[in-house]
């Protein structure tokens, strides 16, 4: 079953926070102990407060109260201050409750109303001369059923099922909207009287001295005091309206679902979760981050989609679609729950103990499961009470949160490290392919240079080698980019995760200290409830610890959020970069491989084969010319030719005579080496034949 806890903060001078003791104020949310009551927190449907008292309504129609009781406004006889919640007897089947300064009202499911507390100004609608009523009393209303109730400082208003508005109480600022026939100002009315100028009203909200009402056609009416522009009209021109007047907004405000009024400012909430405010802004209650008053409605910025809005005297509290509670405005008594008393001029999140989630209480007359409420009272003693959703004990929540965050960090560290390892191996493989590509290119280039016969093959291999070399360059760029864009970012996460774990550990250590201070305060309050010095010191210690926790937790939340944001961005960027790197390389590789394919396809096999055959089959004429060149060289270098070339003329004549004699004696030997050579190469050695002829002639003369 879902657990709820009740928390309160703000002024507590009359025990209105229900903490069991009185104090000047509580600046931070404090848990309300309800063990001595019959209240079931998960059954509470509304909480509201007055100048110094509080009312709580549950789904069973029971009403509980505490706080200031001088005028019996708590509905509990005796007049003593009540610091713990008590059930109001003889008050059953209640569906709505409202508080004035020192008076109270309740609405039954049958449309009847009960009132109690101060009636000095006729705010209870009783014509009785008694100044206060010490217990709830039913008001006799003539033939109509009530569906909405609201109380201001000293006046009250109700809305009937047929859309009529009735008012009672003080009229010193024209807040009743009623003028007599003689146009004489009415100071007060002690019974509920109809406001004639408006109809079809579905809701009404009372401020300090004014009212606003919402019709079923999305129109807003206002009347009463306009000193601060709270009626939605220029306060320099119009000081008040003594009867309801429709507000003409200068911006288009559609689908209003609720209206709220503080002491001197007004707000509306629309179905799209936007808040529009106008009126006094001296304390920042309009949320515009300025001190200027605005009589024209403006949208409150820096808010998410708002689910519900609650307006105090001069401050506001909201809850958004993420169940985050924010506050702004007057903060003198810690009304905004942020741990100090400085006014807040723009919506600021309230930090609660770990493990709690808040929900504003719904205003409809039916069971609502999850809720949280801030009061809508109109005085400076305004209290704030909150119901916080909690699933498990505080320590368990801390442990679960720590475990969850640590598991997230550990998961990121593990998988990013694995990705880094895999991508590094992938990159090394790409580098090896690059190196092998270069080797293939080098061998092809050498082979191409050696191929002198097949010219087409030479050209094709050369082009192919060049293309492979370019592909190698692109592969190298791929490797470098993978290292820079993929591996390097992934490798950084070991350090990032280490720092994140240390931050989480430090934060939860500080949170444990804050829990210890809180337990110590509760112990002191239970054992020494009257020792204000000890309690004040414990409260101060807790406040310091809580502020420190809030600061550290906020910082950690920002860091964890930043870590998660960075992780998502980095993993997306890394993978996109990987895809783009590979896509870029392979796109270029396909383009270059297409060219390489064409280079190889252009090799002319037939032409290269023809060239080869021409070199292999040399023509006969070429062979004979080569043989002649070799023979001429041998002839020219023979001994006889060399002797003839280098001998003197006398020697030559003696040699000739000797040769003649030798020839005569050797006639039988006719085949000399020279003559054989001449005969063998007769056709190609004309020079040598002529020499032999001369020799023969010489040799004949000698005879």
Write the layout of secondary structure elements.
Elements: E1 3-12, E2 23-31, E3 44-49, E4 53-58, E5 63-67, E6 82-87, E7 94-99, E8 103-108, E9 113-118, E10 132-138, E11 146-151, E12 155-160, E13 165-170, E14 188-194, E15 201-206, E16 210-215, E17 220-225, E18 240-246, E19 256-261, E20 265-270, E21 275-279, E22 294-299, E23 306-311, E24 315-320, E25 325-329, E26 344-349, E27 356-358, E28 383-390, H1 394-450, H2 455-491, H3 493-527, H4 532-601, H5 605-616, H6 620-636, H7 639-646, H8 649-665, H9 673-680, H10 686-702
Antiparallel strand pairs: 1-2, 1-28, 3-4, 4-5, 5-6, 7-8, 8-9, 9-10, 11-12, 12-13, 13-14, 15-16, 16-17, 17-18, 19-20, 20-21, 21-22, 23-24, 24-25, 25-26, 27-28
Helix pairs in contact: 1-2, 1-3, 2-4, 3-4, 8-10
Any descriptors?
703 residues, alpha+beta, 40% helix, Substrate Binding Domain Of Dnak, Chain:A, Domain 2, repeat, Methylamine Dehydrogenase, Chain H, four-stranded antiparallel sheet, 10 helices, cell projection
CATH C-level name of the largest domain: Mainly Beta
Largest sheet: 4 strands, antiparallel
How much strand content do the residues show? 15-25%
Instruction: Give the quaternary arrangement of the chains.
Output: single chain
Total strand segments: 28
């Amino acid at each position: 079953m879902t657990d709820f806890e009740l928390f309160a903060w703000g002024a507590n001078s009359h025990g209105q926070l229900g903490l069991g003791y009185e104090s000047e104020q509580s600046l931070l949310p404090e848990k309300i102990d309800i063990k001595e009551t019959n209240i079931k927190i998960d059954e509470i449907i509304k909480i509201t407060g007055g100048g110094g008292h509080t009312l709580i309504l549950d789904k069973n129609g029971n009403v509980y109260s505490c706080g200031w009781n001088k005028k019996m406004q708590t509905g509990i006889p005796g007049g003593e201050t009540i610091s713990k919640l008590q059930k109001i007897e003889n008050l059953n089947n209640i569906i709505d409750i409202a508080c004035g300064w020192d008076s109270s009202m309740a609405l039954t499911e049958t449309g009847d109303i009960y009132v109690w507390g101060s009636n000095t100004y006729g705010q209870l609608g009783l014509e009785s001369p008694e100044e206060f009523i010490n217990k709830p009393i039913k008001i006799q209303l003539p033939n109509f059923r009530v569906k909405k109730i609201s109380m201001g400082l000293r006046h009250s208003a109700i809305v009937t099922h047929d859309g009529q508005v009735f008012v009672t109480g003080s009229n010193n600022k024209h807040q009743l909207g009623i003028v007599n026939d003689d146009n004489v100002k009415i100071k007060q009315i002690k019974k509920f009287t109809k406001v004639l100028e408006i109809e079809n009203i579905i809701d009404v909200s009372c401020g300090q001295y004014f009212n606003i009402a919402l019709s079923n056609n999305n129109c807003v009416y206002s009347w009463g005091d306009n000193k601060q522009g709270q009626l939605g009209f220029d306060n320099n021109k119009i000081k008040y309206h003594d009867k309801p007047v429709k507000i003409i907004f200068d911006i288009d405000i559609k689908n209003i679902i609720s209206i709220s009024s503080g002491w001197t400012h007004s707000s509306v909430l629309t179905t799209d979760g936007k808040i529009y405010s106008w009126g006094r802004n001296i304390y920042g209650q309009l949320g515009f981050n300025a001190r200027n008053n605005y009589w024209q409605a403006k949208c409150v910025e820096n808010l998410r989609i708002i689910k519900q809005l609650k307006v105090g005297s001069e401050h506001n509290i909201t809850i958004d679609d993420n169940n985050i509670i924010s506050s702004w405005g007057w903060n003198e008594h810690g009304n905004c729950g942020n741990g100090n008393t400085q006014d807040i001029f723009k919506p600021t999140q309230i930090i609660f103990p770990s493990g709690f989630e808040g929900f504003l209480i719904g205003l409809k007359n039916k069971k609502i499961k999850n809720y949280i409420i801030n009061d809508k009272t109109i005085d400076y003693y305004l209290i704030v009470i909150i119901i916080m959703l909690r699933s498990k004990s505080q320590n368990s929540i801390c442990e679960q949160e720590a475990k969850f965050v640590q598991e997230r960090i550990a998961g990121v560290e593990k998988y990013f490290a694995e990705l880094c390892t895999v991508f590094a191996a992938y990159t090394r493989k790409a580098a090896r392919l690059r190196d092998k590509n270069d080797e293939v290119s080098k061998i092809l280039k050498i082979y191409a240079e050696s191929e002198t016969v097949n010219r087409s093959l030479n050209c094709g291999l050369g082009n192919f080698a060049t293309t492979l070399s370019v592909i190698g360059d692109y592969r190298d760029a791929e490797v470098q980019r993978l290292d820079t864009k993929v591996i390097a970012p992934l490798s950084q996460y070991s350090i990032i995760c280490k720092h994140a774990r240390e931050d989480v550990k430090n934060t939860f250590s500080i949170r444990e200290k804050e829990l210890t201070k809180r337990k110590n305060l509760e112990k002191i309050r239970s054992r020494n409830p009257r020792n204000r010095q000890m309690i004040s010191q414990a409260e101060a210690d807790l406040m310091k610890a809580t502020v420190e926790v809030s600061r550290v937790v906020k910082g950690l939340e920002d860091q964890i959020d930043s870590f998660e944001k960075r992780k998502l961005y980095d993993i997306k960027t890394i993978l996109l970069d990987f895809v783009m790197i590979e896509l870029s390389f392979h796109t270029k590789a396909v383009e270059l491989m297409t060219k390489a394919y064409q280079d190889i396809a252009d090799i002319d096999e037939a032409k290269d084969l023809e060239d080869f055959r021409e070199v292999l089959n040399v023509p006969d004429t070429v062979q004979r010319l080569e043989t002649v060149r070799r023979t001429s060289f041998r002839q020219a270098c023979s001994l006889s030719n060399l002797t003839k070339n280098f001998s003197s003329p006398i020697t030559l004549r003696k040699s000739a005579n000797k040769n003649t004699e030798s020839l005569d004696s050797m006639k039988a030997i006719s085949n000399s080496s020279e003559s054989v050579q001449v005969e063998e190469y007769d056709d190609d050695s004309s020079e040598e034949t002529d020499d032999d002829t001369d020799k023969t002639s010489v040799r004949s003369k000698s005879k």
